[in-house]
Every structure is written in structure tokens, then in C-alpha cells.
Amino acid sequence: MAKRGAENLKELSDLELAVMDVVWELGECGSGEVVERFTARRPLAATTIRTVLASIEKKGYLERLPTLERGLRFRPRVSRETVAGRSLRKLVGHLFGGSPRHAVAYLLREGDLDEADLDEIRGMIDAHKRKGNKR
Prior knowledge:
The protein has helices at about 15-25, 30-40, 45-60, 80-95, 100-110, 115-130, and strands at about 30, 60-65, 75.
């Protein structure tokens, strides 16, 4: 999956992101598969979902694949992690003044974290320090 240029892609709407989430789960998939999986979660007309797929493709998040099938086939051009990273950076920038520390403090204060979550977070911090990735 391509990562370059993802920063320049237009943002996905909430509905586009929900449909893209299905595509990420399925990987290479037909439009019918996306419609079936999406409508199992949330009732929406098949034509609407196909219109959303076309919009996502136009924005550059999907690659259309050649097929002999009746419907269209797609595969993601941008990974979920790339979109998540960009969205998180934007959120931290807008809501936490660009400070990851403030964002983490908020999540620790307001999040519903149990001891296992906290242990896992401690492990991530320790691993980050061992790699010498401190700023």
C-alpha cells in the first residue's frame, strides 16, 4: 500500500471513513462485498455505498482493479495506519495545541484504562526509550 502523498489527499468524511474501514478489513474486494459487510453493520442503500466508494476512489484512497466480474473491484492505496496517523496529528494539533503530552495526559485522566492497559502503555514507553527515540 502506498504511503507517499497520503498527506496531500483530501480528508475523508465520517461516512467515507466508515466505508473505507470495511475496505481495509476486506483488502482486495468487490463493491458487492463492501455493500454486504457495511449493511450488516449499518443499514444504507447499496447505491449510496457505491457512490461513497466512487468518492473515496476519486480522492485517491482506492485503486480500481481490472476484473471480469460484474461489479467493481478495489484495493486500498493508503493504509489504515497512514490515515490514522494523519488524523491523530491533526487532532492533537487542533485540540491539544500540538502537544502529544497534553493528549496523553487527557487520555490517562479521562480514559477508561484498566491496569492491563496501563501496563501495556508502560511497556510501549519503555520500548520507546530503549530505542533512543526520546525528544
